[in-house]
Design goal:
By secondary structure, the chain is of the alpha/beta class. It has two domains: 225 residues, Aldehyde Dehydrogenase, Chain A, domain 1 (3-Layer(aba) Sandwich), CATH 3.40.605.10; 185 residues, Aldehyde Dehydrogenase, Chain A, domain 2, CATH 3.40.309.10. The chain is 40% helix and 19% strand. The chain has a seven-stranded mixed β-sheet, with helices on both faces. The N and C termini lie far apart (51 Å). GO terms for molecular function: oxidoreductase activity, acting on the aldehyde or oxo group of donors, NAD or NADP as acceptor. This is Aldehyde dehydrogenase family protein. Keywords: Oxidoreductase.
Amino acid sequence: MLNTEPVGEPLLHLESRRLLTEARRALPEAFDARGRLLSPIAGRWMTPPAWFNASSPIDGSVIAELPLLGAAQVAAGVEQAAAEFVPWAVRPLEDRAQAVSEAVVLLHAHRDLLVRILAWDIGKTLPTAYNDVDRCLAGSAWYLERVGPMLDGRKPLGLVSNIASWNYPFSVLLLNVLVQALAGNSVISKIPTQGGGVSLTLAFALLRRAGLPVSLVGGRGRDLSEALVGHPCIAGVAFIGGRANGAQVHRRLRDTDKRYALEMEGVNAYAITHFTDWDALARQIRAGFDFGKQRCTAYTRWVVEQSLVPRFVRTYVDTVSTLRVGNPVLGSHVDFGPLISQSKAEELRSLIAEARAQGTAVLHQGELAEDAFTSRQERGAYLPPVLLFGVPRDSELYLREPFGPVDVLVSVDSEEELVREANVSNGALVASVATDDPGLAQRIASRLHAFKVGINALRSRGDREESFGGKGGSWAGAFVGGTHLVRAFTDGPHPIEGNWPDGS
């Protein structure tokens, strides 16, 4: 149950408890008699053998208890979810679309509650939480309007498994689930280990009310991965996460006949050379700190022509110094709140300290906005922006995505070095080049090892008209986005574009 003895600032804890009370009134089927959340599996709400605490990164308080299922229970859940496939797939597309439309109506009706719980769930500001939910709703409407031609001549796969990161539970994970179901699949998803499980469980309750064949399970990754990846009832896998876990999933899938789309991290680089439009770059730098750079498309590596380094640093510091970091649910405006957990913030602080001990210069160290916290609030998960220069080449901060507001500046003195340093991570999801010379921009862009490359602009994931994928180690399997998302988890005459082991 929720804490009954407030720790820190009581009013904050009262707010999170009030939201769960409101959720229990709106969706009683999702809770047991003690207020603990259950798992929706194939139309039934399953009681787990144990629960785990869902703690908010905002202040460390426990906001709910989530189901902790074991391997055998999840395997049985996979079989039950797979049994929903045939009755759902034989329904006409019009019937499936009507059910998805009803789910979207229910999501709209509970939008404010979902947004407020999502903010507590993973530490988003209310504007970014609204953006996450609203992108899911708008994306669902987009697919409902256009799915007919996308499915022409195609058939669903069966049961599709979703294992996703915690940072965009609605605009990425839930949208994928809705599209996969619209295409005729039954769907099972895993609650992200680090956060988002409370708002997701409530959203899945709404999808079940609309009659969609969707299931949601919670538990330790090591207990659930075999059932959600290797079980013979799984026909397709959508994964979003880090390279180490993604590589393990890929090894399990690459020699099977299962369809898969595996999005993995990469170091997204912004290369700058022969450039003068610093005001435009400042706007991009500021926009890039959305959600504290806890995004797979965040730019955290700045590769800059040596003569431009002083101007870049001045632009960066002037811009980033205006960002406010603090409690995202208080009345005072903040640009971003905590990282997903205190342990993540401590990991990055440790890496920064290690790099400094090896000679790295800290060119900017931001501060928390003191007026954006309550007086006794836990602040361990909060990390203001940091810009590092001279990071050792064997440092984790040099070689991998930090998934937080830690930027690395690399100075180069040739085009060859610029390209080499921008391509440090063996493939990325996005990259950009800033230059006043259009021909140079095109030449450099063609050599950047990223799926999307911006010229004097940031690139984003995209989830409708644009396809999305990655190069090198940042992606494996089918690309997604727009028609590609539908084709990724259906069979038919069109080839499936992707990053496959044979290089196709």
